[in-house]
Design goal:
Elements (H helix, E strand, L loop, with lengths): L3 E5 L2 E5 L2 H7 L7 E6 L2 E6 L2 H16 L1 H7 L2
Antiparallel strand pairs: 1-2, 3-4
Protein name: Transcriptional regulator
GO molecular function: DNA binding
Organism: Chlorobaculum limnaeum
Length: about 70
């Protein structure tokens, strides 16, 4: 499915085709997550539970940054 990138004020916006918005169950004004994956990006609707999990992950990665860095070697 093709989407259009456009300028919106000082920002850049992505215009989703109606079919994509319907499938994602999003409407104008909703918040979505853009997540980078090895294959590109995925767009998912905002989910408060997911937001809490992401915040916990960010906190853990920050707190254990040095240990994670060592494990990555």
């Amino acid at each position: 499915m093709r989407a259009t990138v456009t300028k919106i004020g000082n920002s850049t916006g992505l215009i989703l085709p109606k079919a994509a918005a319907d499938r994602l169950k999003v409407k104008q004004g909703d918040i979505v997550y853009l997540t980078e994956t090895p294959d590109g990006y995925t767009v998912t609707p905002y989910d408060p539970e997911f937001a809490e999990q992401m915040e916990a992950a960010r906190h853990g990665m920050s707190e254990y940054r040095n240990a994670l860095h060592e494990l990555a070697r």
